[in-house]
Design goal:
The chain is α+β, with helices and mostly antiparallel strands. The protein contains three helices and four strands; from the N terminus they run ββββααα. The structure holds zinc ion (2 copies).
Amino acid sequence: MIETIKYTLDTNESLCEICYTSHTGNDNFLVLSGCGHFFCKLCVNAYANDIISKGDITKLICPDFSGCKIVLNEVNLREVGLPEEVIEKEIRFSINQAIDRMEDFGWCPMA
Ligand SMILES: [Zn+2]
Ligand SMILES: [Zn+2]
């Protein structure tokens, strides 16, 4: 199949900021409701999988380069097709993080 480069973006075709590939149709994209940024589901899948496997879920935010801080939630992770066990791992990490924050309560971070 020969692909032709289209310079005119039609309204249904959008560019993913992670891989710079354009896709047509919403099925290929995850649109974050908090900020409206969108990325291919495959890109978000790989991105989230990598972060969760490293256990650093504070980095599990919108991959936009503008420094967007919208958090990727479990609904987003399901939408991009992450396996349930990876999502459960993420949920466990967030619970641990919440407990850590509670234990930190009362501590002066500058001390
Ligand atoms: Zn992409
Ligand atoms: Zn964003």
